[in-house]
Amino acid sequence: MRILITNDDGISAEGLKVLDAIAHEVAGPGGEVWTVAPAFEQSGVGHCISYTRPTMLSQLGERRFAAEGSPADCVLAGIHVAMHDQKPDLVLSGVNRGNNSAENALYSGTLGGAMEAALQGIPAMALSQYFGPANRDTGNPFEASAVHGAALVKSILAAQPRDQQDYRLFYNINFPPVQAVDVKGTRVAPQGFRRGSHFSAVEQLSPTGRRCLWIRGGNQHVEATPGSDAAVNLDGYISVTPMRADLTARDAMAALKAIESTGT
């Protein structure tokens, strides 16, 4: 198996080292693992692509590249440049430092990389590690994903449905904020919503008196939709959420039929 890995925390991130080990175990002795990751941190860029400017690509070693762009840029660079149009069998993105459950999924560069792979027709998974008091300050906060990641990826590959839709499936995987021994299991869960918690902006004056803004995240440990990804994560379970890039709100289409008209 040929696997392409990327992330949004950057080429030197600890989570990418964890993902590299996961990918090598999944690929097997005869497989290949290619890395194309951002040269600098790209957290929060979503599915951004560098459409209006060139992206520098540097080779750092055998099958290892850094791109001065987003995770989606890295996936495009991996598929069409680094791997010379020999598409990978699987794209893995992560392991993100922090969860991409609930509304975080919409901002995530980690998911952006997996989404781009799906748009290219390649199976893809985004892996993220929830942080909390039980694992944040330990010697290895990524332990849960490191221990359980490879087996879970193999299980999803074995169980995933045949998918021929235009918008292909990709998977959002979040490991709970606990040590590996305390992981209760895995739950297939829908994307949730953290009520009362959201991103915000705070103002700060620079030493020269200029107004600057910092984007601040919300509380990641508030109650979420019962049974959803964030809720099961906080209960000690790994969440697996199948996703597609189709953003159509199909539940609203019937109500809007009244506005349809024909040309004159």
UniProtKB/TrEMBL annotation:
* Cofactor remark: Binds 1 divalent metal cation per subunit.
Give yes or no: UniProt keyword Zinc: no
Q: Where does a divalent metal cation bind?
A: D8, D9, S43, N96
Q: Which cofactor does it need?
A: a divalent metal cation
Q: Look at the named UniProt entry and state the broad enzyme category this protein falls under.
A: hydrolase
Q: What is its EC number?
A: 3.1.3.5
Domain Survival protein SurE-like phosphatase/nucleotidase: residue ranges: 3-195
Question: Catalysed reaction(s)?
Answer: a ribonucleoside 5'-phosphate + H2O = a ribonucleoside + phosphate
Ordered alphabetically, the record's keywords are:
Cytoplasm, Hydrolase, Metal-binding, Nucleotide-binding
Q: What SUPFAM superfamilies does UniProt report for this protein, alphabetically?
A: SurE-like (SSF64167)
- A single GO molecular function term of this UniProt record: 3'-nucleotidase activity
Q: Its biological function?
A: Nucleotidase that shows phosphatase activity on nucleoside 5'-monophosphates.
* Family recorded in the similarity comment: Belongs to the SurE nucleotidase family.
Task: Kindly provide the name given to this protein in its UniProt entry.
Answer: 5'-nucleotidase SurE
**Organism, as annotated:** Leisingera daeponensis
